[in-house]
Amino acid sequence: MRLVLLVLFLALGSTGVFAAAAGVEAAPQISEWNGFTRADFTVAGRPCLVVFPAQAAPGKPWIWRTEFFGHEPQADLALLARGWHVAYMDAKNLYGAPKAMALFGQFYAHVVVRFGLAQRVVLEGFSRGGLYAYNFAVAHPNRVAALYLDAPVLDIRSWPGRDRSSKEWKECLEAYGLTEQSVAEFRGNPVDRTVIVARSRVPILIVCGDADKVVPYPENTAKFEQRYREAGGPIEVIVKPGVDHHPHSLKDPAPILDFLNRHVKL
Fold this sequence. Notes:
There is one protein chain. Helix content is 35%, strand content 22%. By secondary structure, it is an alpha/beta fold. The chain has one domain: Rossmann fold, CATH 3.40.50.1820. It has a nine-stranded mixed β-sheet with strand order 1-2-3-5-4-6-7-8-9, sandwiched between helices. The longest helix is centred in the middle third of the chain and has 18 residues, at 98-115. It is globular, with a radius of gyration of 18 Å. Residues 11-21 have low confidence and may be disordered.
């Protein structure tokens, strides 16, 4: 019955506020994801989704997976069971660049208005998703309750810049409007922009391995942690000894949930 009611609610809404929202197209498609109701729709031509808890927690908290939806979903599933929503917008191949942030701004506005989600969101950035999550916090610190970053890319010169012949590096330069020459002076990386978010006291949790060969710990998390602390920002880091880029997250997401319970005030 809950699924039927949600289908009717979303379908009827598509002729009103839902369709009127900027860039939103057609009625959402309803399905099931790990036992929870999932709505797929588009904003600005990009695939988007929201997964709904059986019963929303007070204030309708939500976590926004910025990349790789569904990968190692332990924390997402645990939060859904506690009444959180899980959201995702596909902004692939934009590497957290301003173009991606413009899309994210549209998505945020849509889901907050359409679904009544909390004004302040937790962003969850896996790998390159760390660029998206942190850059959204730079652009909109007042909209961010906390960040959970997992083996995050925090400097494009480390990844994908480590292999300058790669397709990803070329895509990244194009997304940011950079060249091989101008990137040397680029200061738009998360490791370069700790002050704005730190001043807003956005709490950050990072989970990573210290043997990461893809996104090296010293060039990303270690450097970022030091600078964020020096800027006065609250940050906790869980380092997995001897672990490479994979597996992401924690088998038992309890430490992640504990961090959010302590820091997220809606």
